[in-house]
């Protein structure tokens, strides 16, 4: 399967299954909410959503009638169009006011908490360059977006989204009372979001804050938000100006699947309070949690395609790519599901396709130059995957998606903390990306051979490349990891290798302990056996 289908975005189905024409970039006649900052749902309101058709379809804002509680996805996926304000297209050409997500290097960075980068092309042909870079990237998130596990559990237990009762002991009585008033406003906003009530969503905010909130509402609706649980973290703090307050809020959210374990994000909110009137939002700040950073739905207009196993989102300028990307993501998900080593596979794989500006803004940006994609943990057992549209060639998208979705299926929320296991994490993802092809057809074999013949000390635990490593060094490291995992599979079978992966990456056993437990052999001998094999194949 090649990269995204170049055909124009297809038709959308409304509630009565009448097709809706999708505007091309710059045409804001469909699915663009008003950018005027008013709460009038009539301006630019999207058509009512209904059951999706079996064919791929591209539509505007699902609108008030769109299934807020997770209507079943179309059999071949459906694409929601640009939900952002007219004329604010969040496309590759939009200047980024914040640094973007960190990229996927050719060799995934194992920096602890959760980001794996992918390699960009050196002098290799475009197809090969993309494959390495794309397959190499993943961001390990040590903590699910930095949200304490106890808080996440509280979100799951409490249908109202309230944290543990001991929270009430914080702050003065007046501060707790003000927090309660703000939370009531946030609860109203959450209910409006899930009901498809844009006017109600905006009603809790001052007019100046509404354009940004309009874009956020549209993006969340396009992603089929099914849960939105805001929880105040502590009590409000006075801001610089009289009558203005700050409140940190953690939101648990789900997309498409109503009963998912929520992902979570910490947001800074600002409020104006005047007497006994209800507090009004003046701003919602972008999340800046390390290492995840701002989610795409916080800062960009999104067009979205939803399938049975995958959701793909991009900017309106790139929406024509969605049908092809969704088909490729669905196929990759079927492979990645086989590598869910410690839990059921994700309920949906969420893939973002980033233009130039978005690549530098989403999830904090700043990835190594050789990065083509990455996966970042966002809590609730979910990892978002980001692909760099500028680094991809048609031939490498399938391999990259299999690689990154395997990270999403196989890694724990906390990522892996020890760079010595980098070869195993990336080797398994490369093995899945190769999808059963013979070793002699593996496209990274030349880079692996070059690294084996010079520059590598023969230790798997020292294989992880540096951020500034050359493309060949990164590609070779991924290739050696692939060969080592492939050899273990040849000897012991896939299931035992997955058991070994679980013991090392999830249970945090040492290689020696895991090898004794799973393979019944000392790791020192197995390590040397793997090295001898890869030297024979690539040396």
Kindly describe this structure.
The chain has 539 residues and is an alpha+beta fold. The protein is built from 15 helices and 16 strands. A hairpin with a 2-residue loop joins strand 15 and strand 16 (382-388). The radius of gyration is 23 Å and the shape is elongated. The relative contact order is 0.16.
Q: Care to give the gist of this entry?
A:
The chain has 539 residues and is an alpha+beta fold. It is built from 15 helices and 16 strands.
Structural class estimated from helices and strands: alpha+beta
DSSP helical segment count:
15
Helix amount, in percent?
25-40%
Q: Averaged pLDDT, please?
A: 75
Largest sheet: 7 strands, mixed
User: Unreliable stretches, pLDDT < 50, 5 or more residues?
Assistant: 1-167
Compute the CA-based radius of gyration. Answer: 23 Å
Strand order of the largest sheet: 3-4-12-13-14-16-15
Tally of DSSP β-strands:
16
What general form does the structure show? elongated
Q: Hey, roughly how much beta strand do the residues contain? A: 5-15%
Q: State the end-to-end distance.
A: 31 Å
Features:
539 residues, alpha+beta, seven-stranded mixed sheet, five-stranded antiparallel sheet, 15 helices
List the helices and strands and how they pair.
Elements: E1 12-13, E2 19-20, E3 57-59, E4 78-80, E5 114-115, H1 126-136, E6 140-141, H2 149-157, H3 173-195, H4 198-202, H5 210-222, E7 225-232, E8 237-238, E9 244-255, E10 263-272, E11 280-284, H6 296-299, E12 303-306, E13 310-314, H7 322-336, E14 349-354, H8 356-359, E15 373-379, E16 382-388, H9 397-410, H10 422-434, H11 445-453, H12 471-492, H13 494-506, H14 511-518, H15 523-538
Parallel strand pairs: 3-4, 13-14, 14-16
Antiparallel strand pairs: 1-2, 4-12, 5-6, 7-9, 8-9, 9-10, 10-11, 12-13, 15-16
Helix pairs in contact: 1-9, 7-9, 9-10, 10-12, 11-12, 11-15, 12-13, 12-15, 13-14
């Amino acid at each position: 399967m090649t990269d995204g289908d170049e055909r124009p975005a297809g038709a959308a189905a409304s509630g009565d299954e009448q097709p809706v024409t999708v505007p091309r970039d710059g045409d804001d006649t469909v699915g663009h909410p008003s950018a005027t900052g008013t709460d009038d749902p009539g301006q630019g309101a999207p058509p009512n959503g209904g059951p999706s058709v079996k064919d791929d379809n591209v539509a505007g804002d699902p609108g008030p009638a769109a299934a807020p509680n997770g209507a079943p996805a179309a059999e071949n996926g459906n694409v929601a169009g640009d939900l952002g304000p007219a004329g604010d297209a969040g496309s590759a050409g939009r200047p980024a006011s914040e640094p973007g997500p960190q990229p996927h290097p050719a060799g995934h960075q194992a920096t602890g908490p959760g980001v794996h980068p992918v390699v960009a092309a050196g002098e290799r042909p475009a197809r090969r360059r993309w494959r390495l870079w794309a397959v190499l990237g993943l961001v390990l998130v040590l903590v699910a977006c930095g949200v304490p596990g106890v808080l996440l559990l509280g979100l799951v237990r409490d249908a109202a989204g309230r944290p543990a009762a001991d929270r009430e002991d914080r702050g003065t009585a007046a501060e707790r009372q003000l927090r309660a008033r703000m939370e009531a406003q946030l609860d109203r906003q959450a209910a409006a979001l899930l009901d498809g009530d844009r006017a109600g969503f905006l009603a809790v905010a001052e007019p100046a804050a509404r354009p940004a909130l309009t874009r956020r509402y549209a993006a969340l609706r396009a992603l089929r938000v099914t849960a939105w649980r805001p929880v105040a973290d502590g009590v409000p703090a006075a801001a610089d100006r009289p009558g203005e307050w700050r409140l940190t809020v953690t939101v648990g959210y789900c997309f498409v699947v109503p009963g998912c374990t929520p992902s979570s994000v910490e947001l800074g909110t600002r409020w104006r309070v005047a007497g006994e009137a209800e507090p009004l939002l003046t701003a919602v700040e972008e999340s800046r949690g390390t290492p995840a950073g701002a989610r795409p739905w916080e800062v960009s207009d999104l067009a979205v395609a939803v399938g049975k196993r995958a959701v793909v989102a991009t900017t309106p300028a790139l929406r024509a790519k969605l049908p092809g990307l969704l088909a490729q993501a669905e196929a990759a998900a079927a492979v990645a599901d086989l590598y869910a080593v410690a839990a059921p596979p994700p309920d949906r794989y969420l893939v973002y396709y980033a233009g130039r500006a978005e690549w530098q803004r989403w999830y904090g940006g700043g990835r190594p130059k050789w990065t083509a994609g990455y996966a970042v943990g966002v809590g609730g057992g979910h990892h978002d995957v980001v692909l760099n549209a500028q680094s991809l060639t048609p031939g490498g998208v399938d391999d990259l998606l299999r690689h990154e979705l395997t990270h999403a299926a196989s890694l724990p929320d906390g990522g892996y903390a020890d760079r010595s296991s980098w070869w195993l994490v990336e080797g398994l993802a490369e093995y899945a990306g190769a999808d059963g092809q013979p070793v002699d057809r593996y496209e990274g074999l030349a880079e692996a051979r070059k690294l084996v013949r010079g520059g590598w000390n023969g230790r798997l635990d020292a294989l992880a490349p540096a951020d500034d490593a050359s493309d060949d060094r990164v590609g070779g490291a991924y290739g050696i990891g692939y060969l080592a995992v492939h050899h273990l599979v040849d000897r012991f079978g896939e299931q035992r290798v997955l058991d070994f992966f679980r013991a090392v990456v999830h249970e945090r056993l040492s290689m020696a302990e895991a090898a004794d437990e799973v393979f019944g052999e000392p790791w020192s001998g197995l390590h040397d056996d793997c090295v001898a094999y890869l030297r024979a194949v690539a040396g």
